[in-house]
Amino acid sequence: MTELRIAAVGDIHLGEDVRGQYRKRLEGIEDRADVFMLAGDLTRHGTLEEGRLVADELRGLPIPTVAVLGNHDYHSDLQYEIAAALRDAGVIVLHDDGVVIQCGDTKLGVVGGKGFGGGYAGKCASEFGEREIKNFVAHTRYIAEAWKVSLKEMTADLKVVLSHYSPIKETLEGEPPEIYPFLGSYLLAEAVDTAGADLILHGHAHKGREKGMTPGGIRVRNVALPVLGRAYAVYCLGENGSC
Amino acid sequence: MEAPQYVAARVQQALAEDGRTHELGIRVDIRGDQLFLRGQVSGAEQRERLGQVAHEAAPDLRVHNEIMVVEVTEPGEDEHLD
Q1: Chain B residues with beta carbon closer than 8 angstroms to that of A235
Q2: CA A158 distance to own-chain centroid
Q3: How many CB atoms lie within 10 A of CB A221?
Q4: Would you call A235 and B78 a contact, using CB atoms and an 8 Å cutoff?
Q5: Is A84 at the interface with chain B, CB within 8 A?
Q6: Which one of A44, A72, A231 has the shortest CB-CB distance to B75?
Q7: Nearest CB to A236 within list B70, B76, B79
Q8: pTM for this predicted structure
Q9: What 3-state DSSP class applies to B7?
Q10: How confident is the model over A34-89, as pLDDT tens digits?
């Protein structure tokens, strides 16, 4: 197995006023990375116009491009239409499922979706009480279970989980602790630790930190654009060499 | 007189829910008759819209728009996860 270079970013929040600007930063990405991953919040308001703008920015990239949507992309209830626009532009959009990308000799498996909140072990919501609280936690639990199943069923040399919400609180440091339950859930990390993966990428926490790890020792990277401060980060997985 | 904490909360809510902005995570501080906006956005027009929505939500306060526009720079150095 050779080394695989993963370019990743989240929370690019593109709007009409910055059309074309992000695309400029993607020039030459094929020389830097083998695959490009987007961790949600690609739009500001989740409108179809913004979704099409994002699709135009990502259209025809020379390396495989995988994306999940974020909470902003759901705001106008047009998430499926936005996903369709992205797929038409050649982007693989995950919705609590997975894909295997052949990259040279390496099979890269990517599992993921939006994720959701609930908080972190010891300080989190439970499926108890009002229906609204139970629905909130059950939504995260459903997603975590889907990721676990997808990871377990997947045959790949390397596995990456792509999420919008954070599986751990370590990469949220800098955000107010009071809003942690709305930034992610430990259920996501628990599911990935159970099934196994080589890397987890997420966004959502603009004021958080880039680096962390799950209780099971899986590396986690918060790739939100304001955290990275650059067009995308590149993470190299596997052995020395090039893909 | 309305407590400044409630005014700040109302402005923050407006920034998140107004169709022109939908921006979460903008910090709103009120000191006397002055309102400070802090945070990061992806474009200069979005920063101006946030200032406008904040002004409309609290018209009696002087708005100081200290929001930064994130400059998207070159990708930089790779990280090897051995």
Answers
A1: 78-79, 81
A2: 16
A3: 26
A4: yes
A5: no
A6: A231
A7: B79
A8: 0.91
A9: helix
A10: 999 999 999 999 999 999 999 999 999 999 999 999 999 999 999 999 999 999 99
